[in-house]
Write a structure and sequence with these properties.
By secondary structure, this protein is of the alpha/beta class. The protein has a domain of 145 residues: Purple Acid Phosphatase, chain A, domain 2 (4-Layer Sandwich). It is built from 9 helices and 7 strands; from the N terminus they run H-E-H-E-E-E-H-E-H-H-H-E-E-H-H-H. The protein has a 3-stranded parallel sheet with strand order 1-4-5. Strands 2-3 form a two-stranded antiparallel sheet. A hairpin with a 2-residue loop joins strand 6 and strand 7. The chain is globular. It starts with a helix and ends in a 16-residue tail after the last helix.
Length: 212
């Protein structure tokens, strides 16, 4: 089939965590031969694959989200969810009565700090932020095709197979988000493994130190 041939021969550009660095992303796309057509970046032969974490930390989070969403909706890019988009959904979603929590992701000092730049940059655009939160639900956790796979942190075939059977696709919904707040649940294990990765013991004498 001609369409299948085009898909199989199309090149992919894998772009990792943007974290609000919209100007750096524009320079990268320019260097890779992407050009703005009707206000949206596209490439004549290739497709960008964003591996999540568009938000938090950087100076132009809102601009980065608009750029990436425009590309995804135009078909010149695809994206899988990162742990920062998932964290934002949990942080901004109220927990259900009787759960003992106010929000799915606790509003503590560390979590407040991680999302602070995002919320501050959307302070005067609350309707846009709510639209992006809704859009996050449409972002798949993974891309699984015969000749191509993508996930933010860790590809776990067993979890992904079971997830597809349960969810009928690659996206989460509100019910799954609420269930994932319990880390020991199936939903919690899916989100923790696919979006944060697995724990590996460091070799003797080696340690990692960091504010997080």
């Amino acid at each position: 089939m001609p369409g299948q041939e085009r898909s199989a021969s199309r090149g992919y550009d894998i772009i990792g965590d943007i974290h609000g660095c919209a100007h750096t992303l524009v320079r990268l796309l320019d260097q890779m031969g992407y050009r703005k057509v009707n206000g949206v970046y596209e490439h004549p032969r290739r497709q960008a694959i964003f591996i999540g974490d568009i938000i938090d930390r950087g100076p132009r989070i809102r601009e980065a989200l608009h750029l990436v969403r425009d590309m995804v909706e135009h078909g010149s890019a695809r994206m899988v969810m990162g742990n920062h988009e998932y964290n934002a959904l949990g942080y901004c979603t109220r927990a259900r009565p009787g759960s003992g929590k106010t929000f799915l992701r606790e509003h503590n000092a560390r979590h407040d700090r991680l999302i602070r730049e995002t919320l501050e940059q959307f302070e005067h655009y609350p309707h846009e932020w709510n639209e992006f939160l809704e859009w996050f639900y449409t972002i798949p956790l993974f891309i699984d095709e015969p000749d191509f796979r993508a996930v933010h942190a860790c590809w776990d075939s067993d979890l992904i197979t079971k997830f597809k059977e349960n969810q009928g696709g690659a996206c989460i919904d509100d019910e799954f988000l609420h269930a994932s707040a319990a880390i020991e649940s199936f939903a919690g294990q899916v989100m923790d493994t696919l979006l944060r990765g697995t724990d590996l013991r460091l070799p003797p004498g080696v340690k990692i130190t960091g504010k997080d």
